[in-house]
Amino acid sequence: MPETVVVRSAGGGRELRTRCVPEVATLAEGLLAELEKHAEQWRDGYGLQPGWGPLVLREEGDGFVVTAPDYAGNPRSELTDDITLAIWMSVSLTAAPRAARLEPRDIAWDDDVICAIGWEQADRLQLSRIETTTPGDSGWFIDAFPSVKEGELEAHEMVRLPAWRILQLRRAAARAMALPPTVKVVVDGDRIQAIVRTSDGAVLNEAPL
Predict the structure, then answer these.
(1) For the chain, what are the domain ranges?
(2) Under a CB-based contact definition with an 8 Å cutoff, are residues 85 and 28 in contact?
(3) Bridge-partner residues for 133, per DSSP?
């Protein structure tokens, strides 16, 4: 496991602390500063969602430990005081829209993603997104590239997964999920190879991400 450092803050009158790898410690300090703005609401179990997923306070001694869902394990039932992956994901989601000069769209850690069965075994993937107003539905569809089947897939040939599971199985695919429905994405291995505008086929990123 990577070595972590403890980040502390006492700006809200009581100590906040959390852990992360040194490379994102400055970002962790920024998150603690954001939490300080809500000091009057601090209590055990208090949550704030600054982006991809929530930060949750756990009262401990005279202060609070800042935790996040354990995206490396089971985030639905487990919290961790190592918020490295939570920070990494929030930052990573901004990279693809910025590279394509597009406004990002919301994606939450527990939003549903529709996948072709067996997609995780493919080296190359294609991702597409539709507009949706259904709560908890990301609008994303993931398939192998090229698809192993011509035409539309039947229901039994697809599976619904939460976005955090995509993060566990293929981080590059998860990093693309703040892109809007106006593009399709090709993932090659652990890189976003191409962000393609669907209206004209133009590749919007200058280099793999």
Answers:
(1) 5-82, 103-197
(2) no
(3) none
182, amino acid identity:
T
Mind listing the pLDDT tens digit for each residue in 45-95? 999 887 889 999 999 988 999 999 999 999 999 999 999 999 999 999 999
Q: For residue 161, what are its two tokens? A: 């997964």
Single-letter code of the amino acid located at 115: C
- Token duo for residue 53: 């997923």
Residues 130-185: pLDDT tens digits? 999 999 999 999 999 998 777 788 899 999 999 999 999 999 999 999 999 999 99
Whether the bond between 146 and the residue before it is cis, its omega within 30 degrees of 0, is yes
Q: According to DSSP H, which parts of the chain are helical? A: 25-36, 84-100, 163-169, 171-175
Report residue 47: phi and psi, to 5°: -125, 150
Give the whole-angstrom CA distance, residue 106 versus residue 74. 22
181 to 21, 102, 190, 198, 208: CA distances (angstroms): 33, 11, 22, 9, 20
